[in-house]
Task: inverse folding
């Protein structure tokens, strides 16, 4: 089990016994000797569950419960009492407690109820965040691609994933930045907890602060209850801030504070809240240029750019395309209840010649459309969008030789790059004689 629990109990022996019991189950546990101290700890920590006695000096368990519902409504609460009545139980549940325990406590009952509530909380978040297929689509064992570039990225992921280091993932739109982020999460010690993706460009600026950091009741018009932010909801897991280059300048200092101090300040609150979360970010922008233009803080950029992973565009790693095609077709088969075997050889050659300005996202759309138009077995050239004239400088359906030339040129250029420009080595890798390689360099216009 993982999670953070607060025990509020004025009897020292009972408090210490509960703390020892819960720490023995690998929970992070804080303790308070009365209700007032408990309320202060609620303000200071990001809590999953609070076990609070009902009758205590300075502030009773109902006061603690009311405060939790104001400040952190998603925190679970169990009331403990030696003087339970039907009225007390009804009042506790009405105010939002999840359960109550009778004293003297039976530790087996305590653990059973705590485990049940914590398991329920985890499952609720997973359902709410639609974590379908994450184990199969983004498992650590699944290769990211055949190309040398993606194999290098897989090596970087294995190095950085176990650390809590912030990672900046860069690359054009559609190259698979979220897939890399999910793979980092799957390799990390946070993998048993939530992966929460947030598109910073999709949330209106006036709502983004509240969404990320939460707010307290009455902090703005419409804030009728307190609400946890996404940083709190991702507790113990990973938050992925996509399109981080779109974050407004006004919010960037607050994100910097999260990175440096692991605390947030909900809108309308004066009490910082600690958060325990791994932060991954991504952008398709040149953040160096954004810093020079004054649109992005340099100190935030340096904190984000501790470890950068740059994903090349699909057109520069065509070795990955066959595997991506197979994976995407299998996924669409499940979603569309079809049984496509793949693409035929002519279609694959054409796909290899496309410029793929939209990268993997464009490939996905092309395949989905083709599967709708096709006969359910093999995708053919006639089912590709723009297969006649609008995908390039020649008619793909009629100019198969041109498509082959483009693929051959791309393959030779990649092999030369892999061989560090050594033509003898490149010829050996491709199974060609050196004279044949030189003829192809001249024919295809490859600079050497």
Result:
């Amino acid at each position: 089990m993982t999670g953070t629990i607060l025990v509020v109990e004025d009897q020292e022996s009972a408090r210490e016994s509960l703390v020892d019991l819960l720490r023995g189950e690998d929970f992070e546990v804080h303790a308070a000797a009365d209700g007032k101290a408990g309320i202060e700890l609620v303000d200071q920590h990001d809590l999953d569950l609070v076990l609070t006695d009902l009758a205590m000096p300075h502030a009773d368990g109902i006061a603690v419960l009311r405060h939790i519902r104001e400040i952190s409504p998603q925190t679970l609460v169990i009331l403990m009492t030696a003087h339970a009545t039907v009225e007390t139980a009804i009042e506790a549940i009405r105010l939002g407690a999840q359960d109550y325990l009778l004293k003297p406590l039976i530790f087996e009952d305590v653990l059973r109820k705590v485990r049940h509530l914590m398991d329920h909380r985890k499952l609720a978040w997973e359902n709410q965040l639609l974590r379908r297929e994450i184990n199969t689509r983004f498992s650590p064992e699944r290769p990211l691609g055949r190309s040398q570039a993606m194999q290098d990225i897989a090596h970087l992921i294995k190095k950085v994933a176990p650390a809590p280091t912030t990672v900046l993932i860069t690359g054009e739109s559609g190259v698979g930045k979220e897939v890399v982020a999910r793979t980092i999460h799957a390799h990390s010690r946070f993998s048993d907890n939530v992966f929460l993706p947030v598109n910073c460009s999709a949330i209106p600026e006036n709502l983004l602060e509240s969404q990320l950091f939460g707010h307290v009741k009455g902090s703005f018009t419409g804030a009728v209850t307190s609400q946890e932010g996404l940083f709190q909801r991702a507790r113990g897991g990973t938050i992925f801030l996509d399109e981080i280059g779109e974050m407004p300048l006004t919010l960037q200092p607050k994100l910097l504070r999260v990175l440096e101090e692991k605390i947030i300040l909900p809108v309308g609150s004066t009490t910082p809240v600690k958060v325990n979360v791994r932060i991954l970010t991504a952008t398709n922008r040149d953040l160096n240029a954004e810093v020079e233009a004054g649109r992005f803080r340099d100190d935030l950029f340096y904190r984000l750019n501790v470890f950068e992973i740059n994903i090349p565009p699909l057109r520069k790693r065509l070795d990955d395309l066959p595997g991506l095609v197979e994976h995407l077709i299998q996924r669409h088969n499940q979603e569309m209840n079809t049984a496509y075997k793949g693409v035929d050889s002519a279609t694959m050659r054409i796909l290899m010649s496309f410029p793929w300005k939209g990268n993997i996202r464009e490939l996905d759309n092309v395949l989905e459309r083709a599967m709708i138009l096709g006969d359910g077995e093999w995708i053919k050239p006639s089912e590709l969008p723009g297969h006649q004239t609008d995908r390039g400088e020649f008619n793909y359906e009629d100019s198969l030789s041109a498509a082959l030339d483009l693929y051959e040129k791309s393959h030779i250029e990649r092999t030369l790059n892999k061989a560090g420009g050594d033509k003898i080595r490149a010829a050996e890798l491709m199974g060609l004689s050196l004279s044949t390689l030189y003829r192809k360099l001249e024919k295809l216009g490859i600079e050497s």
Q: What stands out?
A: The chain has four domains: 4-128, 137-312, 316-391, 399-448. Residues 130-141, 388-398 have pLDDT under 50 and may be disordered. DSSP finds 19 helices and 14 strands in the chain.
